[in-house]
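so i finally got all the pieces together for this one. its five components total, 1750 residues if u count the protein bits. some of the lines might not be protein, just check the labels. i wanna see the whole assembly predicted at once instead of chain by chain like last time, that was a mess tbh
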Amino acid sequence: MSRQRVASVDELPAVAEGHGVCWIDIAGLGDHETIRKIGERFNLHPLALEDTLNVRQRPKVEDYDDHLFIVTRMPMNDPEGDADPGSSGPPGSTQGAWSHHEGQLVTEQVACFVGTGFVITFQERPGDVFEPVRTRIGKASGRIRSRGADYLAYALIDAAIDSFFPLLEAYGERVEDLEQEVVERPESGHIAHIHDLKHDLLTARRTIWPQREMLNTLVREDSPLIADETRIFLRDCYDHTIQLMDMIETYREVASGLVDIQLASVSNRMNEVMKVLTMIATIFIPLTFIAGVYGMNFNPDAGPWNMPELGWRYGYPVALTVMAVIGGLLLLWFRRKGWIGGGQRGRGGS
Amino acid sequence: MSRQRVASVDELPAVAEGHGVCWIDIAGLGDHETIRKIGERFNLHPLALEDTLNVRQRPKVEDYDDHLFIVTRMPMNDPEGDADPGSSGPPGSTQGAWSHHEGQLVTEQVACFVGTGFVITFQERPGDVFEPVRTRIGKASGRIRSRGADYLAYALIDAAIDSFFPLLEAYGERVEDLEQEVVERPESGHIAHIHDLKHDLLTARRTIWPQREMLNTLVREDSPLIADETRIFLRDCYDHTIQLMDMIETYREVASGLVDIQLASVSNRMNEVMKVLTMIATIFIPLTFIAGVYGMNFNPDAGPWNMPELGWRYGYPVALTVMAVIGGLLLLWFRRKGWIGGGQRGRGGS
Amino acid sequence: MSRQRVASVDELPAVAEGHGVCWIDIAGLGDHETIRKIGERFNLHPLALEDTLNVRQRPKVEDYDDHLFIVTRMPMNDPEGDADPGSSGPPGSTQGAWSHHEGQLVTEQVACFVGTGFVITFQERPGDVFEPVRTRIGKASGRIRSRGADYLAYALIDAAIDSFFPLLEAYGERVEDLEQEVVERPESGHIAHIHDLKHDLLTARRTIWPQREMLNTLVREDSPLIADETRIFLRDCYDHTIQLMDMIETYREVASGLVDIQLASVSNRMNEVMKVLTMIATIFIPLTFIAGVYGMNFNPDAGPWNMPELGWRYGYPVALTVMAVIGGLLLLWFRRKGWIGGGQRGRGGS
Amino acid sequence: MSRQRVASVDELPAVAEGHGVCWIDIAGLGDHETIRKIGERFNLHPLALEDTLNVRQRPKVEDYDDHLFIVTRMPMNDPEGDADPGSSGPPGSTQGAWSHHEGQLVTEQVACFVGTGFVITFQERPGDVFEPVRTRIGKASGRIRSRGADYLAYALIDAAIDSFFPLLEAYGERVEDLEQEVVERPESGHIAHIHDLKHDLLTARRTIWPQREMLNTLVREDSPLIADETRIFLRDCYDHTIQLMDMIETYREVASGLVDIQLASVSNRMNEVMKVLTMIATIFIPLTFIAGVYGMNFNPDAGPWNMPELGWRYGYPVALTVMAVIGGLLLLWFRRKGWIGGGQRGRGGS
Amino acid sequence: MSRQRVASVDELPAVAEGHGVCWIDIAGLGDHETIRKIGERFNLHPLALEDTLNVRQRPKVEDYDDHLFIVTRMPMNDPEGDADPGSSGPPGSTQGAWSHHEGQLVTEQVACFVGTGFVITFQERPGDVFEPVRTRIGKASGRIRSRGADYLAYALIDAAIDSFFPLLEAYGERVEDLEQEVVERPESGHIAHIHDLKHDLLTARRTIWPQREMLNTLVREDSPLIADETRIFLRDCYDHTIQLMDMIETYREVASGLVDIQLASVSNRMNEVMKVLTMIATIFIPLTFIAGVYGMNFNPDAGPWNMPELGWRYGYPVALTVMAVIGGLLLLWFRRKGWIGGGQRGRGGS
């Protein structure tokens, strides 16, 4: 197996006539003419070519007798923050880092035709997750060099799917961080983050779920293009998609639970705020009323019933004592209702 | 293949006896007699004709041995804001714009009979999404002219289904706008908009879901009226309905999440309002009480214990200082509880 | 086919021995002896007869080799508001109006035995939805007179199922009314109405769902008692149950959404109330405190620091100005927080 | 068929060798030795015997070629409020009343071996729901005496399942009572009752659901131990489990809806409380402020601008009038906002 | 059957050539070389060996013609609180207690190869739940010594699955404790505990669910490596996983209900707090206003309308009486609204 960069489609025939398996990798879908030519050269079905150009396909597999058409997705390699799909970046650019826009998952479509002796992949843009596969092809030994096109297709799909694991582990950490944040600091600002997380998990689910279906079809359906020993490997790959789905569903459930905690925390917060207000107000409002009463200007000279307390020798201390007693009784009542001791307890537990 | 407008059903026979495929397109269901005549002419099943006139059918396919009866739906072309179904508008009117009443999705039933050599479509009213199909028929070359009635039926169904994509993209934008609105301006008025959106998505789901079923039946069941090569195209069309459903379900999940955010935002809002009230009230209520105490009119002359503070040299400054100290301590306590710094932080994050 | 009212079971044999199809319709289940006799006469299975008397059966179909036992339900015709099932009303009463107790759906069981040449229906009480069927039988022409017992059974089931459409349309209007009410007048009293509606829809669902199952069984299973051409009609009837379920599910989803709107509206309301309280209290509490301070009775004569402001020439205007400034600043702060302008905006949007 | 009480397992052989069907009923699982002996005597599978002793089995049916092992459950007969399962109470005690601990559903396992000519039942404790079956066996005539072991097993399962109907009807009444309570007296204490109800319905569901599965298996699977005519009866029994599930699911849905109503009611309550507070506070806070202002002690002698109002001839009436006007305007504003008239209306509707 | 500890893989052949079944148990996955050698020696599939080393596999069974690869999980034996998977602890350590980190469920992968005459298990670390199996092997009699590798594998899987029962019973107690706590002490701190519980139940579900699938596959699929009599035992084991799932699902539903109760309790609490505040404030605010009015300093000498009440003989008593009457009327109004008596009632029921 050799590796070469060809300048145009016309050079391709020689390659495809070589022995073994020929992998043609087209990065960037801008050059419709070339794609059309390849389609003609390898006798690809026009509907499949149309789907290749429409980069919003769900992962799927379609059996066109003499070739399989497989659509899969991988996390997008996004060098310039330019998410415009369909535009082919400069062909020579090689980026090592996988970005996802401020935590938002963006995926790239990989359309893959598998026939006898050839695999053709169409990527949306240069930069992919297939470097390990290329390395294995480059090495002299290795299963991949001695097997057919179906094994190469498996290796590519496997690379695409495994590239989701680090992303999902990052989501796992985000979930755990949010979980801790929400429980420990039940402030209010987390709800939007939880929503973002759920949105991203939804996107991941939409991407992974049809890949699982696609692999299930590949494993179970009886295409002569897939050898039985390759099916064992595809089954393993299928297991990986189940693991991914399992992670996603778990994170989604935990994230949903976080919304409840968050709402309860906000309620608790408010409850506590209200309790403080109520206690302060409930104690001082009656006391202020009493003070207000003795601030009235009824004329004591007009009659013996007009505010005689004002002239008592111990009027003021008695009034203060009455106020203190009322305040104390209210405090006792609050404690009996569990607002003070219980409040402390509840707050400690929250 | 030729295209002509016939004045009455009686002219039809000549057309149908021609070679190739005859497409009879009836726009408007008001003329029951004509419909009955066509039914007799082409030997259509009475139950299917009944369903044709009852425009509230769910999309479905029914196999009547010598013809298939397919019901599909397309977004309604509504020129005068007149949503009265069943009324046939003026036959010559040609509107280019697809309206949906203030964002509300309205669909129109298309009943389609497919037999050997003929396709008959009954639309609720003039104006449809089949113009591209007519254009392709008009062109000299093109697959559509060399294939049978099944391919023409596929082309019509495909046109009907693809006409939902722009609508759903508009919903996608509405979802994103609402998402941003709710997160950025957590005011109260969004809940009704979210409800409207969910209602529309529910309508869309009710329209698309049975189309998916209908196409699945067409692809899988073994009718001699559908050629195998047409099945591949129908499978592609089926994929489109899956994509539509996928979009709808995603939007629905996001919209459901928005309700949570909205409710949480309203709670946060209220929390913040309450915090301000509580702080102001908690600080000033005790201070006002102290002011009230020294506003009491106990007579200092009646005894040495009657409000001696009023006669102290520094009584007033001492009282003000005590008030300031109490206010300061309360502020400190709020800060310790995280209501001031924490409030600022929480508000920033919300 | 003739129609006659027989006085007792003993007269029945003659009828059943006539050519064509014999439909025996028993309205009211009170006369157990008669029912037992009919069972013996037509060789009906004892378990089926037991189910006939127990009027709480779910719709179902059971195949007893020589006859089918079909249970369906129709909306109950309730003349005297007497919902006691099992009681047979006066046999001659003919009511045209279908009532449902204050909006609550009440259904009546129709047990139907279909054999070769006979259909026997047991209704809970007189009054039914089969009048159109009787009319069609009465007419000289019409499919129903030339077909077998299976077609008659179809006609009866179809009448029973179609009688749910007006009820569900009434529910649809109730849903729309509630929707408008809740959005426009977000008062508090709607939650119980929404609950009632959901309860009724649940009842409707419990009634329609098994009818759908029952028809599906009739269409698919291979009973020699059902002719193939009748199956096409049953399939149509099955489509109607799907339409009914579709309506019910949609209404249920919308009703569920209304609970959210209602809760959000109540929260919004409260929010608004709290905002008014907070603004009034927050503005006046500090001002009242200041007024309280200058209401203190510290003796200015006791020292120069004792409330010298009271003796200032412009003390009072200065105090009022300070108060106005504080109030104005607080109002400005509220506007900055969006409580005044924003409140107006939020209220407009709610 | 005769009925006898045997003292020990050794007497059993004679019984089992008799003609017809032998029903051995063991009440209480304490005597492991006896159970082991019976197992040996009838060649029962050790795993099934283990399951018999472990009383937490889910209802199920297992086919051990020469015998069926059926596990079903019935409501527990609990004479002494002793819920300790596995303990065998005094064998002679006969209780007529079915208790369930303060409304909590407790069920008892019935393990049932069905072979050719014998049925062996193991109950957790004495007291069961099989008395009607014993009565039918005791009667001279009756299907049960002329049929095989499979019919007897059916009769026992049927008795066990039918014993759940009165319990579920009691739940139905509880649901309706709670519904009325929650709507009419929207106090706060119902949430725990709703939770208890949901918990009990969950337990009922866990008990009934596998019985449905078990009966479905019995009806559909092809065991030679079950005669075809018995299958018709088992199908009837299966219908009963569907009815039970239907009731349970409906009650569960209604109960879930009640939580919403309850929460909404609590919110409404609070809303009303807040409205009263807000109105009182909003009216009197500004008035109290005005009173506070004229309670200030600025010295009118210090300058003409110091509280000249105090010296006005109509100062006091004017102040009171101003207060009355402010209060009136606020009341008008409340009415305009719909808090007074609207509040009345909203309260009436809640 | 003998039991021995071998020092290296090279000693294994002699063992495996012995008659009967050979069980090789590798505890700790650190020594990759040994694992590779075993793989070669027993001809294990490389993909299965890879999965053995990757300890995050979901339980599953894979059929590699000459051997089955079974992945199961057991609760982790964690002596030093060291949860680092893959590290092999000291081989001689024997811990009797199963810990789970502060209630968090940690499971350990057991990879199990079953071939003709051998069972090979790979545990993540020393310490397992297989001691009872070893004891049974050690005993002279016992089914396990006379059966094949499939029965041994069953015994191991059974031991692994049964080890989850005590854990789930502990969860059951946690659920009940929380239930009682939440209902009896509706404080605020429970929401985080409920979340933890739900999280743990989610983990348990993720562990048990695929074990159920795995056992279902073993029972149903037709591998020559599993004898029919062993299938009966596996079916029993499968029943255990159903029981475990049943417990988990029930606990999850109850836990979800607890969130509702908790939220309702917090609302109730707040309601009660607000009611107290509202009553105190509503009673005293008007009274304080009246006191404030008579604290105004309008000069009675300036005119006859200036606060003549101050000079009345019974002005003060009349004012106090008016205040008492207003307070009493408000209390009466509260009682009429059900806030006092009803509050008591509502509080008792909460």
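Chain E touches chain A through 56 residues (CB under 8 Å).
Strands of chain E lie at 22-27, 60-64, 67-75, 107-115, 118-123.
anyway lmk what u think
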